[in-house]
Structure formats: structure tokens, C-alpha cells
């Protein structure tokens, strides 16, 4: 029994260190979706600048998620390419800007977003971005029930 402990104790210790190392490697990557800067008052249909921020060790690459035209309640108009910059603490931050709109009043949270990151050795990690909350106000004023005519289309002067 004593020989069993002596033989397998180092193996058990190595396995525990390996598990701690794997858990630590995944904790090195964080992702967050940031909403428009506060104070920000957006109304229905206004452009919303959302930003996906991923902090990771140097040499890692962020695979930009494809959001499509609709991402939950958000209508996506454009998505910038990933831009990576070095931080003072030795990590890197990758930023992806998302141009979105909401077409209803209320408070909205961005849907869950799985972000894939590759390390220099080809390992693929997946982290879930912390969502952002956006408040949209109505263009209508409470109690305003007066009907108004439809505004005509804007006209531009004809240039020759």
C-alpha cells in the first residue's frame, strides 16, 4: 500500500497541476460587449456604437463573430475588422466595433455572444462576452395624442 502511494503521488500531483494550468489559461481571456458611453440618450432607430473588447495574452488571435443582420433585438448595420493593441501589463486587447439599431423603446441587453480565440499553438478557446445594456426612449411624448400630417420628402436643389 505504501509503494502504491509513493508511485502514484507524483502522478496525482502532476495531474492536479495540469488541471490548474488549463483552468488558468482559460481565465487569461476575457470578453465584454460595451454599450454607448454614458450618459447616452438613444431614441428608436438611432445608431448605437457597441464594442466587443477581448483581453488576451500576446500571440492570441480573436476570431470575429459573425452576427448577421439580426442579433437578438438588435439590427446590425456594420461590423469593423478586429484591431489588436498591446497593453502596459503585457496583455493584448482586441476591439471590434458593431454598428447597431433598436426599433422599440425599452431596456435591452445584448444577447449571449460566444467569442473564439486561438493561441499560438493552435488551441481554440471559447469565452462568452459579458453583455451590455442599452436604454431606448420613445420619440413620442407621454400623453401626446394629437395627430399630425405626414412630413413631405426632403428635397435637394437640382445642380447642373
Task: Give the integer mean of the pLDDT values.
Answer: 80
Helix content: 10-25%
SS class = alpha+beta
The largest β sheet comes out as: 6 strands, antiparallel
- The total count of helices amounts to 1
**End-to-end distance:** 99 Å
Name the beta content range.
35-45%
What general form does the structure show?
Answer: elongated
Write down the secondary-structure element order.
HEEEEEEEEEEEE
Count of strand segments: 12
Low-confidence stretches: 1-27
The Cα radius of gyration reads: 24 Å
Write a compact overview of the structure shown.
The chain contains one helix and twelve strands, in the order αββββββββββββ. With 160 residues, it is an alpha+beta fold. The longest helix is centred in the N-terminal third of the chain and has 26 residues, at 2-27.
Key traits:
160 residues; alpha+beta; 6-stranded antiparallel beta sheet; 3-stranded mixed beta sheet; 1 helix; elongated; disordered N terminus
Q: What layout of secondary structure does this protein have?
A:
Elements: H1 2-27, E1 30-34, E2 42-43, E3 48-56, E4 61-63, E5 70-71, E6 74-79, E7 83-86, E8 92-101, E9 106-109, E10 113-118, E11 124-129, E12 133-137
Parallel strand pairs: 2-12
Antiparallel strand pairs: 1-3, 3-8, 4-10, 5-6, 6-8, 7-8, 9-12, 10-11
Amino acid at each position: 500500500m505504501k509503494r502504491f502511494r509513493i508511485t502514484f503521488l507524483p502522478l496525482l500531483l502532476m495531474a492536479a497541476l495540469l488541471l490548474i494550468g488549463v483552468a488558468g489559461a482559460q481565465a487569461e481571456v476575457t470578453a465584454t460587449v460595451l454599450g454607448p458611453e454614458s450618459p447616452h440618450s438613444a431614441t428608436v432607430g438611432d445608431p448605437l456604437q457597441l464594442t466587443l473588447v477581448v483581453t488576451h495574452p500576446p500571440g492570441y488571435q480573436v476570431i470575429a463573430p459573425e452576427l448577421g443582420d439580426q442579433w437578438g433585438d438588435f439590427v446590425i448595420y456594420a461590423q469593423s475588422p478586429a484591431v489588436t493593441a498591446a497593453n502596459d501589463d503585457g496583455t493584448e486587447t482586441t476591439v471590434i466595433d458593431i454598428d447597431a439599431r433598436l426599433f422599440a423603446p425599452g431596456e435591452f441587453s445584448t444577447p449571449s455572444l460566444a467569442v473564439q480565440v486561438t493561441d499560438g499553438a493552435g488551441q481554440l478557446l471559447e469565452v462568452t462576452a459579458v453583455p451590455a445594456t442599452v436604454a431606448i426612449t420613445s420619440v413620442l411624448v407621454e400623453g401626446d395624442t394629437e395627430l399630425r400630417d405626414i412630413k413631405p420628402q426632403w428635397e435637394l436643389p437640382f445642380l447642373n
